[in-house]
């Protein structure tokens, strides 16, 4: 399936301001399930783009601006080929089929802090919540992860949240609501408390049931590492497993590392007035 993705972010300022470097995570991560066929990033005013890879292998474009501007527009257009199956079969290594299982010494070294919960857990609220999904020991590893993935929305309501940043998982449990990035962060810390290596993912979601003008959005989900199968996508917001209808752009230890656009300007805080984000993801 080929997907056309358009992503435009517009920043408005009360007066022309000097633009600082902007870090752009807008180029998808290629894999055996995802191939980038065409891509273009445009900035208004014009920017020089310097490409690099971060510690996670994400492709980063650093935009530098020579002129001040009252409006900044950063847009990305992509054509990708997505061939992830809707009902994937994961070839988990025999030694990891039953939970709990030990990662190898090399895997433990490489996973490192991807196994450490990102947020404080006062009163072990998140840990106890995660352990409640372990119905027996041993138990089937994939079934356990699917139970956490599917069971999260039983007590958490999805809501669109415009505020920046990510709620701490304990706060999401307390509020019983959160955005996709909050829900993903809760899932990630929960499975880390269970001893799994997990990482945050940002990218795009195709919604086949949406209208043509709103067929998709930016999205946040998680991946868990299982020996043999590798990194497996878990989308607790939609209770889905596998990469179908997902286009991964960046991975990281936490959501703060994988924001699509981050940058600043020289001026007073009140110089910034508002921003607009428009995303379209559609099959072509």
Give an account of the 3D structure.
The chain has 284 residues and is of the alpha+beta class. The chain folds into two domains: 2-83 and 260-283, Immunoglobulin-like (Sandwich), CATH 2.60.40; 94-258, C8orf32 fold. It is 16% helix and 42% strand. The chain has five helices and 18 strands. Strands 1, 3, 6, 17 and 18 form a five-stranded antiparallel β-sheet that branches. Strand 9, helix 4 and strand 10 form a beta-alpha-beta unit. Mean pLDDT is 94; it is low at 211-215.
Task: Describe the protein's topology.
Elements: E1 2-19, E2 22-24, E3 34-44, E4 47-53, E5 59-65, E6 69-82, E7 98-99, H1 105-111, H2 125-131, E8 139-140, H3 141-151, E9 157-158, H4 169-175, E10 177-178, H5 180-193, E11 197-205, E12 217-226, E13 230-235, E14 240-241, E15 246-252, E16 261-262, E17 265-266, E18 272-283
Parallel strand pairs: 9-10
Antiparallel strand pairs: 1-6, 1-17, 1-18, 2-5, 2-16, 3-6, 4-5, 7-8, 11-12, 11-15, 12-13, 13-14
Helix pairs in contact: 2-5, 4-5
How many strand elements? Answer: 18
Query: Treating each run of at least 4 consecutive H or I residues as one helix, how many helices?
Result: 5
Please name the CATH architecture of the largest domain.
Roll
Structural class assignment: alpha+beta
Averaged pLDDT = 94
Order of helices and strands: EEEEEEEHHEHEHEHEEEEEEEE
Poorly predicted runs of 5 or more residues: 211-215
Oligomer: single chain
- CATH class of the largest domain equals Alpha Beta
Shape: globular
Q: Strand fraction band?
A: 35-45%
As a whole number of angstroms, the C-alpha radius of gyration is 20 Å
Total domain units:
2
Helical content class: 10-25%
Largest sheet: 5 strands, antiparallel
CATH-derived topology of the largest domain: C8orf32 fold
For the terminal residues, how far apart are their CA atoms?
8 Å
Domain Transglutaminase-like: 172-238
Keywords: Hydrolase, Protease
Pfam families: Bact_transglu_N, Transglut_core
Organism: Sphingomonas xinjiangensis
């Amino acid at each position: 399936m080929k997907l056309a993705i358009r992503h435009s972010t517009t920043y408005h300022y009360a007066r022309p301001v000097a633009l600082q470097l902007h870090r752009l995570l807008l180029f998808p991560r290629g894999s055996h399930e995802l191939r980038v066929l065409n891509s273009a990033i445009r900035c208004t005013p014009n920017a020089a783009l310097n490409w690099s890879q971060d510690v996670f292998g994400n492709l980063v474009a650093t935009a530098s601006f020579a002129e001040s501007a009252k409006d900044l527009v950063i847009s990305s257009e992509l054509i990708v080929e997505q061939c992830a199956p809707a009902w994937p079969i994961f070839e988990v290594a025999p030694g990891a089929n039953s939970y709990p299982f030990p990662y190898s010494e090399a895997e433990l070294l490489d996973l490192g802090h991807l196994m450490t919960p990102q947020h404080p857990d006062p009163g072990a609220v998140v840990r106890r919540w995660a352990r409640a999904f372990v119905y027996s020991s041993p138990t089937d590893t994939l079934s356990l992860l699917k139970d956490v993935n599917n069971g999260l929305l039983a007590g958490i309501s999805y809501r669109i949240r415009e505020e920046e940043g990510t709620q701490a998982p304990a706060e999401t449990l307390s509020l019983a609501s959160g955005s996709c990035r909050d829900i993903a962060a809760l899932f990630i810390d929960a499975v880390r408390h269970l001893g799994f290596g997990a990482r945050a993912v940002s990218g795009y979601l195709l919604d086949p049931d949406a209208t043509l003008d709103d067929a998709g959005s930016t999205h946040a989900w998680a991946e868990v590492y299982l020996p043999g199968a590798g990194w497996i996508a878990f989308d607790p917001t939609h209770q889905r497993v596998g990469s179908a209808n997902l286009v991964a752009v960046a991975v990281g230890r936490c959501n703060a590392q994988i924001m699509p656009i981050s940058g600043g300007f020289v001026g007073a805080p009140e110089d910034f007035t508002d921003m607009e984000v428009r995303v379209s993801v559609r099959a072509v």
